[in-house]
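Hi C.,

You asked whether I'd gotten around to modeling the 619-residue construct. I have! Everything is below, sequence then structure, no commentary in between.
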Amino acid sequence: CLDGVDEIYGYHNGPFPLGVVAVKGGPMLAHACFFSITVKGPGGHGSAPHQTQDPIVAAGQIIVAIQSIASRNISAQESAVISITQVHGGEADNVIPSSVKMSGTIRDFSPQVFSVVEERMRSIVENTAKAYGVIGTVEFKDSYPVTVNTQPQADIVAEVVSAAYGPQKVISAGLPVSGSEDFSYYLQKIPGAFYFVGTKESVSDASCAQNRNLHSDTFDFNDAALPVTVRTFLEIAQHRFGVEFTNLTSIPVIIRSYVVFGLAKMASITEVDATELTYEEFCDQYMSKNEPVLIKNIGKDWKVFDWCTPENELQYNELKSKYGTTKAPVVEYSKKSEYGEELRYEIEVGKYLDLLESGQAEKDQIYLKDWHFTRDFPHDVIYTTPEYFRDDWLNWWWDCKAKKYTAKEPLDDYRFVYLGPRGSFTPLHHDVFESNRYTYCYALLKLEFSWSINIIGEKEWIFFAPSEVHKLRDQFGRTVLTNALDYDSSKYPLASTATPIRLIQPPRSAILVPSGWYHQVTNTKTTLSINHNWFNAYNIEIVWKYFQRELQAVEKEIAHCRDSFDTEDEWIAQLILRANIGMDFNEFRELLQAKALDTNATEFDSIQINKILNELCVD
């Protein structure tokens, strides 16, 4: 579980003033060992102790002698705790028992000290028992090692707490403590720090249940400490990863209102009829708020429905004769590529239709995805973009470029046809503008809108809002799970707390997939759908911020060799940016300038465009 872990941090509530963080470098908690002592003698009647060898008397002397170890055998610069916590002997008031059993715990902070304690205890038990004519034995059961903080990580905890709450909230007094902790095993492998967060409201009020010993059966955890614990973890992550979380000061409110949801308690999605939804209402209620919506009764007069029978079955023979020799990309989920991913390749549409019709596509889970039908057959107008999604700057830009393009290979677009059998599946993801061509392969933006319309069949959608995504990541906060309904809870410990939105999308209905929302899609029947990726004024600012982040990442990667570029480093960075996401600042600026001159541009479009163009520093 520690593979790939660079640093590790943990905490425990502690007997310190409320909100105080106790931390130091070096030993924080003790090594623990448990022991059991047995003293055996013949025993006898309580009225004639002179005729017995009494193990109780010997046990008492052993208890007293053991207490001398810490004061007489351990240096004043070292420390050890030896506590006998159980003594059991005898069952009758008038009988001296034949054995006494004792047990307890040892705490220390170094192997050398423990070695002295172990040696002296064996000697005391065996020899004291012998002096009283009985037999004494002792057994040791080792437990957790010393919890040792690495100094740099302990300093990080102190630094972030001081910055967040003030230096008075960081203490080292009272450390180390003689408790023990299994977190020590992690710190033996990985640099890190373990610290305490205080829970005591009033240190002087011993009657308060929240001020009692942590392991008392009357102790009551102080919930008021939770905001400090959560914020401290977030501050550490923010410091170490160089990221910025939103409004950490609101954490107390978040904790008070936090509710755990499981997948069985999925939220719902708004469903509206196209005959009752105007474009203005769509923009105001959904697109501007970046929320999903299902719109029913879309595309009643589209020619694509000629591909289907009245029973909503595909016209296989007609499709084979018309498009059978065209190649389209497929994903075969039953097989893996040499890189461990799903097998991807191109196949003639006619051959895929044979697989689909015969049931082989369902058996092998072969899914035809990202077919650029509009690009391949520009004169077959099988559908028109619904009015809700027509303000599409991305595909508009590629159409403008295509008119000027003279090469034999057509430019890509972001309009796709999907066709898959029952059970075919698109893993949990957020949309990327990706044009699956070998000549032009763009992975443009990770935060665009998309829309999808079912022609036949139906899909199950599961959405997660951007605010839920952190719960979908693995225990290291890196990768997002790929199936919200089937995952390893030990690898994705927070996934069950994420709040999903579930939807069954019927035929002739469209769904808006908002920017940055993770979603997974399963075809519950053989399903044919049309899908577009796009952006416009409502999410262009998100797109621009993404451009900026990507450029910063590129510049960071080439910073070590910038001197060799002279004055061309900016150009090199833009070139790499274009290779990474399919567009550089210059083309993005050209797109915005062209859209600003478009006669269909609205005042809102112009405001959003000018805001970004000003930041682009147009000459």
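If it helps when you're writing up: The two ends are 53 Å apart (CA to CA).

Thanks,
B.
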